[in-house]
Write a structure and sequence with these properties.
antioxidant, alpha+beta, globular
């Protein structure tokens, strides 16, 4: 039986990553918490696929908006940092990423994907999962869906802003509108 995660402390993680400057580094939830940042953690199945670059670049193209909301974005797949770097170094015209505003992390041992409940074990890849974690480490939002469908950056930003209001946001709430 699946265990509820929203409203609980998010599973802690530290992973190797390719940073925005294309150098290798590490990302961790603890670091974001120390910096009093929200974390937008999203999983995708594989590098060099068809849907993934559309959403990864869409998130990167809007990264300034996440930054303005004190949020760090981290993309994660089970691919290696070397595969990530090769993909980042591939032009967008050739189905690559070219450059990113946020790190791509490598969950090669599948621990983080398992901890967040998105690992397809028989394939060794993650489902498309998106998790928003507040600066105190509490998981506030999660979505997990089929790998054929890319995420909507507008909706991710809307949900992040709704969570940051601290209020009750009615259906179809938009930033700037009253809360209940």
């Amino acid at each position: 039986m699946a265990e509820r995660m929203v409203g609980k402390q998010a599973p802690r993680f530290e992973m190797d990553a390719v940073m925005p400057d294309k150098e290798f580094g590490k990302v961790s939830l603890e670091e974001n918490m120390r910096n009093d940042m929200w974390t937008v953690l999203f999983f995708y199945p594989m590098d060099f696929t068809f849907v993934c670059p559309t959403e990864i670049t869409a998130m990167s193209d809007r990264y300034d908006e996440f930054e303005d909301l004190d949020a760090e974005v981290i993309g994660v797949s089970t691919d290696t940092i070397h595969t990530h770097k090769a993909w980042i170094n591939t032009s967008r015209d050739d189905n690559g990423l070219e450059e990113l505003g946020y790190p791509l992390a490598a969950d090669t041992n599948h621990i983080v994907s398992k901890d967040y409940g998105v690992l397809i074990e028989e394939e060794g890849v993650a489902l498309r999962g998106l998790f928003i974690i507040n600066p105190e480490g509490e998981l506030q939002y999660q979505t997990v869906f089929h790998n054929n469908i890319g995420r909507d950056v507008d909706e991710t930003l809307r949900v992040l802003q709704a969570l940051q209001t601290g209020g009750l946001c009615p259906a179809n709430w938009k930033p700037g509108q009253e809360t209940l």
